[in-house]
């Protein structure tokens, strides 16, 4: 009898301890998603302003993001937030290349397209991620999860189907960016599992390698000297610094979300961010919102809610 009681107590203890751990993980994931949404919207607006108003070179800003991310991580490492784990650097090169392509191409898409076009192109990352995971890694999702993706894609496209102004260069950047971004998101999750690294450890290696890769194209194709000797005002410097610091938060939150959930979950958070951007434009800036756009917004939100329910 005593043995039975002890065994039962142990089982219940493990059960409720497991629930506590699961609850903590859910809370952490929720906070990471909220952080990612807020900083992602902020960096889109800041970078768009830097490109259009300041004329800041795209790849140079991306390089500064990589360098600042590494230094922020190095400070975290010195403070004992995480420990560095030795891994073969050669295994990081594919991820670093994809990271360069992901950031550069999405920034070029933002620079050459309207924010609306930039956002609606990014939604195609979700089906692309599903295809990559299925084709290269043999991963498939259940029918219920797949069905939640459909209203999200339709909803986002409806939001901008009547007012997107395509240009050939911007469209090319957007399409290629979607493919590279999808590979990058899948690789982040796979590399974290393969190398047994957490988000900070993986980003600590990947950021400087990406910076080295991007350094030479920046020197070759962008006016670095003009940028150095330019007469800078405080009003121009502050957004650049903010962009670099926010980039660190964006990159870290991306890695954490994908590493602890999945690339698909990260994309769902992105679609929620998209809806919030449209809603904010309507309520704060009185941007016009047609019936089709409103229907698309509701459809997208319904898909996000359905996905959350299916995956919970």
UniProtKB/TrEMBL annotation:
Keywords in alphabetical order: Membrane, Transmembrane, Transmembrane helix
Subcellular localization(s) per the UniProt record: Membrane
One Gene Ontology MF term: nucleotide-sugar transmembrane transporter activity
GO cellular component terms given for this protein: Golgi apparatus; membrane
Domain Sugar phosphate transporter: 34-308
Keyword Nucleotide-binding set for record: no
Protein origin, superkingdom: Eukaryota
Spans through the membrane: 29-51, 63-82, 89-110, 144-162, 168-190, 202-220, 232-257, 291-310
GO biological processes: transmembrane transport
The keyword Transmembrane helix appears for this protein: yes
Main location as per UniProt: membrane
Record membrane topology: Multi-pass membrane protein
Name of the protein: Sugar phosphate transporter domain-containing protein
């Amino acid at each position: 009898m005593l043995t039975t009681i002890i065994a039962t107590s142990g089982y219940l203890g493990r059960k409720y301890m497991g629930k506590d751990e699961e609850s903590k993980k859910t809370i952490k994931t929720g906070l990471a998603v909220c952080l990612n949404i807020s900083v992602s919207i902020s960096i889109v607006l800041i970078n768009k302003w830097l490109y259009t108003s300041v004329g800041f070179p795209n790849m140079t800003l991306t390089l500064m993001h990589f360098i600042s991310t590494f230094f922020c991580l190095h400070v975290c490492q010195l403070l004992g937030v995480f420990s560095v784990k030795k891994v073969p650097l050669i295994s990081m090169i594919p991820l670093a290349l994809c990271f360069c392509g992901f950031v550069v191409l999405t920034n070029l898409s933002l620079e050459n397209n309207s924010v609306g076009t930039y956002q609606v192109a990014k939604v195609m990352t979700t089906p692309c991620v599903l295809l990559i995971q299925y084709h290269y890694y043999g991963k498939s999702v259940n029918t219920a999860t797949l069905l939640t993706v459909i209203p999200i894609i339709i909803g986002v496209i409806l939001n901008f189907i009547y007012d997107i102004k395509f240009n050939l260069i911007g469209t090319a950047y957007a399409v290629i960016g979607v493919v590279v971004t999808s590979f990058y998101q899948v690789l982040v999750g796979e590399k974290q599992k393969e190398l047994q690294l957490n988000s900070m450890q993986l980003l600590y290696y990947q950021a400087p390698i990406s910076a080295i890769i991007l350094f030479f194209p920046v020197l070759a194709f962008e006016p670095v000297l003009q940028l150095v000797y330019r007469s800078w005002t405080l009003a121009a410097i502050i957004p650049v610094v903010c962009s670099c610091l926010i980039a660190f938060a964006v990159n870290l939150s991306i890695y954490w979300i994908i590493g602890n959930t999945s690339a698909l979950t990260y994309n769902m958070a992105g679609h929620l961010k998209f809806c919030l951007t449209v809603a904010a434009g309507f309520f704060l800036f009185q941007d016009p919102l047609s019936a089709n756009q409103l229907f698309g917004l509701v459809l997208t939100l319904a898909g996000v809610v359905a996905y959350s329910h299916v995956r919970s």
